[in-house]
Each structure stands twice: as C-alpha cells, then as structure tokens.
Design goal:
Mean pLDDT: 80
Number of strands: 2
Low-confidence stretches: 13-19, 153-161
Radius of gyration: 32 Å
Order of helices and strands: HHHEEHHHHHH
Strand content: under 5%
Length: about 240
C-alpha cells in the first residue's frame, strides 16, 4: 500500500513542481520494488501461456527455485538387498495364495474360510505392488537361481529348488493337499503360522542390513507386512488353540 501511494505521488502532475532533489533516487527504489512485486506473478503467466511450472522448495534458509519444464523426477537409489527382499517376498506371498486356493474343497470352517479370503486378497494386492515397484526400477520380478542360493533359501517348494524362510516344503504342501476337514484346518493353520513367521524373519533381515530399507515405499510396505503378519499369527494361534 505504501509503495502504491508513493507511485501515485511521484507520478502525480500536481506534485511535479514540488519534488525535492532526492526524488530521483527514491523513484528508483520504488520502481525496483514494484518490478520485484510483478515478478511474483510470472509463474502464473507461464501457466496461462501453457508452459508447465515446476517449483522446488528450498531447504531452510534457501530460496525456492523454478525448474525447467523438462525436469523429470528421479527415484531414490536402492540397494541390492532391497531388490532381493522384494523378489523373495513375491515368491513367499505366492505360496500363501497357493495354500489358500486349497481350502475350497477341503474345509467348511467358515472362520478359516474368511481368514483365507483375507490372506488371499491382501497378499495378491501386495504381489501386484511389489512387481510394480521392481519394474519401475528396471529390476526383474523373479529372483535368479544364483541370487536364491545366496539368500535364506533352505528347501524346495512345488518343484523349485529353493525357498524363502518359513515357506512350506514340497512334502508339507503335499500333506496339506491330501488332508480334509479338521486335519486340513490344523495343517493349514500351523503351516500358515510357520509361513508368516518366515516373513517376519525376512523383514528383520532387511532392516538389519546397512543401507537397506531406506526407500520410503519399501519401508512402509515392509513395516505393514510386519504388523499385518504379527496380527494374523495371533489370530491363527487362537484358532489353532481351539482345535487342540
């Protein structure tokens, strides 16, 4: 408001003859301030002209910067352990979905069926997320045999030579497929508890590895896996206790 009043005064025809000698310097200061004020609207003008504006906020004490419209976002760097964890968890989740698929003709336990549907939905969604996470970073969605041999692999699953912690062996999966009724319920619950506990081992190993788990998306995902699987383990332990 003061700047506007000064501009009106300086450019008024009535006061022209009364300007003191100091006016030229004063006029210069006001003009510079006015031009600085106008530059605040340049980003808006650029947007109106169809030119995208990218603003990068400055750190505390630093100025905000306008970036070229050609600027592209870059994903944060990841470690080899991050990739190994996600690839291994895809394999891990896939077996849980396979276990749930056996329930249809083998149990009529409504509580168990509801739990299975929850596990199938959540882990299928997480598999989709993990594949997108890997693909967006140019990584393979499956772990190579060389990588598996250097991981926590310890047995076999459905013909695969290696598995992740907690995954059921070929023998265990065969026993589960042959069981029915209460026997199936018992084997499923004990097997899925083992399976979930293996996922907790994988999450712990990720966070215990220096430099791993720093990616924000991966950190949130792994934390959700940990809390979700712990909650389901408690539910299954309670259900298994009712059958003993």
């Amino acid at each position: 408001m003061l700047m506007w009043c000064e501009m009106r005064y300086l450019f008024s025809t009535e006061s022209e003859s009364k300007l003191p000698e100091v006016v030229p310097m004063r006029l210069l200061r006001v003009a510079i301030g006015f031009l600085s004020f106008l530059t605040l609207f340049l980003p808006i003008s650029a947007q109106q002209a169809g030119q995208p504006v990218i603003v990068r906020p400055g750190a505390p004490g630093q100025e905000t910067r306008l970036l070229p419209s050609t600027t592209r976002a870059t994903l944060p760097s990841i470690s080899s352990k991050d990739v190994e964890f996600v690839q291994g968890m895809i394999m891990h989740h896939a077996q849980a979905v396979e276990m749930v698929a056996l329930m249809g003709s083998r149990t009529e336990n409504r509580e168990l069926l509801l739990l299975g549907a929850r596990i199938r939905q959540s882990q299928s969604d997480e598999i989709s997320f993990m594949k997108r996470w890997l693909s967006s970073r140019g990584e393979a969605t499956e772990m190579s045999m060389t990588e598996m041999s250097g991981s926590h692999s310890h047995g076999s699953h459905s013909g695969s030579a290696m598995t992740m912690p907690g995954m059921l062996s070929t023998r265990q999966m065969s026993e589960l497929a042959k069981a029915k009724g209460k026997d199936f319920d018992r084997l499923f619950l004990s097997g899925m508890i083992q399976h979930h506990e293996g996922a907790l081992v994988m999450v712990k190993d990720l966070f215990d590895t220096a430099g791993a788990g720093q990616d924000a998306e991966l950190f949130n995902f792994a934390s959700d896996v940990d809390s979700g699987q712990r909650a389901e383990i408690k539910i299954m332990q309670t259900m298994l206790g009712k059958k003993n």
